[in-house]
Amino acid sequence: MSSETMIREKHDGALDDRTSVRLWLRLLTCTTVIEKRLKRRFADQYGITLPRFDVMAALDRHPEGMTMGQLSQALLVSSGNVTGVVQALLREGYVSMAASPTDGRASIARLTEAGRDCFTGLAESHHEWIEAMLAGVPREERVAMYDLLGVLKTSLAADTGEEQP
Prior knowledge:
Layout: H1 3-6, H2 19-46, H3 50-61, H4 68-75, H5 79-91, E1 95-99, E2 107-111, H6 113-133, H7 139-158
Antiparallel strand pairs: 1-2
């Protein structure tokens, strides 16, 4: 049995006049499989959720800290979702909160030293897991897929969602 048939898709994979829908379903299948594996590995090996990893990753990229609004925009989720995750990381000692010097209504979340140390290990494992999952795809093909997905991203940005005449 080939590795392609071991992962079930929502369609048979054949391309016809519904190429766009089938492409979207294949992208969804791949994304879902990768996400499920990451969730399971983070939970099993570190006792942490993927959303906590995502928040820590965003804060690691912004050592100056981020507001809940900035975090929600960066992670493409609601502020309510981010707040719960940040509160859990705060309880665990991985994140600190401080009042914003420019906006009294906002708080700035930052990784603590313990949070940075924890994230370093998480990020190394995350990188290794992704590399292992994509190891069967030659580097040149990964680069080509990345470039093609950039074209898709541009197409998505151009679609306003309004009905076309």
